[in-house]
Amino acid sequence: MDVSSIDVIELRKHLRLANDVVMAHRIAKGLSLDRERVTWAREIIEERVLLALAETDVAAMPEGWSWQQAAETISLQIALAIVHEKKNEPRVAGDEPY
Questions:
Q1: Which of 5, 16, 43, 52 is the most exposed place for a label (fewest CB within 10 A)?
Q2: What is the pLDDT of residues 14-69, one digit of tens each?
Q3: Separation CA 7–CA 4 (nearest Å)
Q4: Nearest partner of 76 among 25, 3, 15, 23, judged by Cα
């Protein structure tokens, strides 16, 4: 699939749930919510979804297939992988709950 034709704003709309999953995990675990870490997660999800879509043969997809639905499904799997990878990340000093 030619991913250069995908509108970035529309793509991000379909990745919102995956980003929310990662953020909810960070909040629940009391992990840092600094801009660098949040941006990193968003960029990783976006990059990996685009890589997966680029490898997709649209002609081989069933009728009714859409890149939007595929992006949502793929992004959730990526978000879960990030959560699993970061589940043992230590809390940042000063981020301790009261």
A1: 5
A2: 999 999 999 999 999 888 888 998 899 999 999 999 999 999 999 999 999 999 99
A3: 8
A4: 15
| C-alpha pair distances (Å), 31 with each of 28, 44, 49, 81 | 8, 18, 25, 17
pTM for the model? 0.84
Element (H, E) at 48: helix 35-54
Query: Would you state the structure tokens that stand for residue 73, as one six-digit string?
Result: 């499904």
Rounded CA separation 42/14 (Å): 12
Alpha-carbon gap, residue 82 to 80, rounded angstroms: 5
Q: Using N-to-C axis directions, what is the helix angle for 35-54 and 67-86, rounded to 10°?
A: 130
Where do the domains of the chain lie? 3-86
Cβ(11)–Cβ(72) under 8 Å?
A: no
